[in-house]
Amino acid sequence: MKNPVFLGALTVASLVAGAAAAATLDDVKSRGKLNCGTNTGLVGFAAPDANGDWQGFDVALCRAVAAAVLGDQSAVEFVPTTGKTRFTALASGEIDILARNTTWTFSRDVDLKFTFVGVNYYDGQGFIVPKSLGVSSAKELDGATVCIQTGTTTELNLADFFRVNNISYEPVPIETSAEAQQQYLAGACDAYTTDASGLAATRATFEDPTAHVILPEIISKEPLGPLVRHGDDDWADVVRWTLNALIAAEEYGVTSANIDELVANPTSNPEINRLLGTEGDLGAMLGLPADWAVKAIKAGGNYGELFEKYIGQSTPIGLARGLNAQWTEGGLLYAPPFR
Amino acid sequence: MADLTFVRHEMVPEQAPPATSVGPRGWLRENLFSSPLNAILTLLSLGLIWWVLSHALPWIVLSSWTASSLGECREQIAAAHGEGTTGACWAVIRERYLQLLFGFYPSDLYWRPLLAFGLALLALAPVLFTALPRRLLWLSAAAPFVVPWLLWGGSVWVPVCVALGFGLGLAALRVVSAAAGGLAGVIAAGVVPVLWWLFLAWVAAGLLQAILPFGITPVESRAFGGFMLSITIGLVAITLSLPIGIVLALGRQSNLLIIKAICVGFIEFIRGVPLITLLFVASLLLNYFMPPGTNFDIILRVIIMVTLFASAYMAEVIRGGLAALPRGQYEAADALGLDYWKAQRLIVMPQALKISIPGIVSTFIGVFKDTTLVSIIGLLDPLGFSNSIRANAEWNGVVWELYGFIAALFFVFCFSMSRYSMYLERKLRTENR
């Protein structure tokens, strides 16, 4: 993705495509299905289960958007995309929304003409090493061999980190995370680096997870979020506020369990009432029914419920909330007011 | 004078051969230990086989079939065979083999791809085995329309109308040739069906469907996956690449400048570009060239690209066969007064194709295996699916079992193709040896 000619072509083409297919919301409604670009497979974020239904944290967001727009969380056509095909799939209109753990960066937002509507997971790059290596900080990795996926931002972050700390390393390029796990276990590299969520998922698969440690240093910022095409702000609003509704629902204690009760007997908290459409007309402003947020939350639960279900402490991945806690609990999740 | 001459009156009874040259011992001696060097090599090979099997067999046998996750697999194996045993977790195959075979195809419709591929094999049979009754060839003619209809479903009138295009082409050939000469006939036979397919066929199919509705549940291309996807792409590319390759090879040898230039240009361009590039063009660039909103099926795009790729290689394989034919064969055909097509059909092609069989089949096998490249553009072929299955928290970390299963299935397909080519070579061996 470093080729300027390619990026230029992509930009021109996405401008054309963006201008031609502006009213995504109307398209989705008339089609009756949401086309959601997702990962071909990433533990916790997107994977088909034994029945062929897609499950995961990113997938759940698409289902919530489908529920909000179409009233049916199963009205989603999942389009598996790879790291190479994801941006063209979105720019060309093949998909309406890309929820594929994509890092929000300047060039993707500005140069590739996409709109990141928010962040659904704050990630960062870390290292995993065998305990027997006796390393407790990434700064002690001088001269180490490091397994790294090629062609990703993690490769560049790694080079930056070692340069800043003035230590050397030897990269072992690998293509997929499955290959990385095998190489790392076979001892082809001293350390394996990728997003911390990926490291946790990888460690969970080892026969003896306790023999490996994830080092405390997080060497990059990886705000992962859903994105849509530039130039269709109405549609971007729908996706942005669906995500915000899930986050706000957790903040206000609205869960998939008590939401019916809250709709039937509106509380004295006007913010919750506006969110759930029992007061005001926020839905109509988006061009959606009044109960859009109710449908979105009922699809899989609020943000916290989704987190616990797919990647939280109760799952094999076992991620702590960390940065992804509500702002009231020391995290970065901060939904703007529903007013 | 004593008569000392000895005349044997009866045959010496046959003696058993020495014990070292018969039975298992003789076989061993002749085949495995015929010289010190061979003896050493035999022992080394046996050692290697033992080493591989002693590592692989316990892993394959001391396995778990019933677990529902990798962790549970490990627990079951440890419980059954002792702590520290490493065994295969075949449970992942038991849970997901249908996905690896059919992808997301609706499970109540599995009979359709099975029937479609069965039909395709049946349709290929009379082409492949000349001993079968010729009447089966009608099935071969119908299969190209019935098989896609079974796979994708929808109105029965679409394949009927597409097939009608060929009928129209034939009719145009007859009528126009009679009225305005041969060349005009050929041009009409090419133009009429294309016009029909582009503008009228869909309208006609829609009308017929409205009048006499008959169809089966449509299945979107997105639902295709696993081996079904590989076989669909491979089957179409293999069956189409041979005729297209023959035409290209003949075109390359043609005396007509433009035809020759087009064929050479096509072959060299396609052969000069990696398949993966063509697949990227199919999946990404074509989206931009087409007006927004057009939905040109991704699998169809990929099939077209793979077919073009295979055809270019096939053309060169067949050109090799043509080049191997002695000049005398062409001249003999001319001497018999055969026209170009008759000479090709009766004299040149049967010999050239026979020479090319090993090359043709190895191109087929290569194409079939190349279908796994589609995982790079996000289509879930068996390899792509193995990645998706590993993305489940339960099965994250399962590698060898999935790859082993996929490799075994690919081996079955490729090995049978290879055996068929050997059968064909034996059958067609007509020259004296």
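Chain A has two domains: 4-122+223-329, 125-220.
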